[in-house]
Amino acid sequence: MGRTPGMETRGPWRRHHREPLCTTGRLVAYQDQVTLPDGSAGHYDWVRVPDQVRVAALVGGSLLIVEQYHYLTGTMWQLPGGNVDPEDRDSGAAARRELAEETGYREGRWTPRGALHPLPGLTPARVHLWSAEGLTPGKPAPEPGEADLGVRHVPLAEAVRAACDGRIGCAASAALVLAVGAAHAG
């Protein structure tokens, strides 16, 4: 792995060199040699990972919530979602694929709800937010790492409470639940 030369100015920061520290099939970790906003020399470590999607799927007045054990954080409630893969046309295609894989629900009416930067000091990756209604049930096809995934039908009001009290532990999921809850309250 070699250094990437080239000066780049980003707001009050200036990058002088970029060096990849670790590359796997899932991520690249970098260290940039920078001039900090105060003018001193330093380095900035960051990670490139794929963008993600989360889907607020409303079925009969309830949100589909997945419960799954995550290797790093333990069991968590969150909305269905996953990576935006290179073969996806866009985040909407990834959202449709992930919802069908994890819950079996397909088709329906889809609404983009924006995107968030969940860890802006660590990665430029975004989480694209979608909501869907009028879905057709089907058979889920979870990936091997999702064999323990359970799908709950949680009434929207209860899902909003779960986002507020921390039962929904994924920040992007909690933000999307609150946005959908507010849209349906008004």
In short:
20% of the residues lie in helices and 43% in strands. The protein is built from 3 helices and 11 strands, in the order E-E-E-E-E-E-E-E-H-E-E-E-H-H.
How would you describe this structure to a colleague?
- The protein has 186 residues and is of the alpha+beta class.
- The protein folds into two domains: 4-48; 52-185, Nucleoside Triphosphate Pyrophosphohydrolase (Alpha-Beta Complex), CATH 3.90.79.
- 20% of the residues lie in helices and 43% in strands.
- It has three helices and eleven strands.
- It has helices spanning 91-103, 156-165, 171-185; strands at 4-10, 13-23, 28-35, 41-48, 52-59, 62-70, 74-78, 81-83, 109-116, 127-133, 150-155.
- Strands 5, 6, 7, 8, 9, 10 and 11 form a seven-stranded mixed β-sheet that branches. Strands 1-2-3-4 form a four-stranded antiparallel β-sheet, with no helix packed on it.
- Helix 2 crosses helix 3.
- Its cofactor is Mg(2+).
